[in-house]
Design goal:
The chain is mainly alpha-helical and 84 residues long. 74% of the residues lie in helices and 0% in strands. α1 crosses α5. The longest helix has 16 residues. The chain is globular, with a radius of gyration of 12 Å.
Amino acid sequence: MVDVLQLAEARRYAASGQGQRLRLTARLSLGEVARSIGTSHVTVLRYETGERRPTGEVGVRYGQFMKALERRGFAPEDIEALAQ
């Protein structure tokens, strides 16, 4: 069963553009993220462009992956703070 709260968080990462910013800040390709969450690079691209909303277990894993990047300090604002 999919946790709808985690799914809502995944959708927030995708819709706000934060997921793409995290991925780019971490210097990860679409394919690397896709392989990590068990989907195709096209699906991740569609999440990032707003063409598709994260759904199901893959959507939850996308949100978990983005949250993990954020916790590890890959948020763009964290990187900017380190540079100052």
